[in-house]
Amino acid sequence: MNWKLIAAVIVGLITGVLLYFWTESVKNEQVAYAFMRLQPDRKVTRGQAITPDMLAEPVMLPESFGALAKLAVPAASAYQEWLKDRTAAADIPAGSVLLFQYFDDTDGGRLTTMIAPGKRALTLPVNAASAVGHFVEPGSYVDILGTVDEPVEPVAPAAAAQPGAVPGQPAVPGQAPAAAGQPQAPAQPQSPVEQMLKNYLTQYPGADENDVNAYRKQAQDYKLGISSRTRVVTRTFLQNVKVLAVGAATTAEGAVTKANSTYNNVTVEVTPSEAEMLIFAMGQSNGSLNLVLRNPADNTVEDLPSINWTRM
Question: Which of 85-99, 253-267, 290-304 holds the top average pLDDT?
Answer without folding.
Answer: 290-304
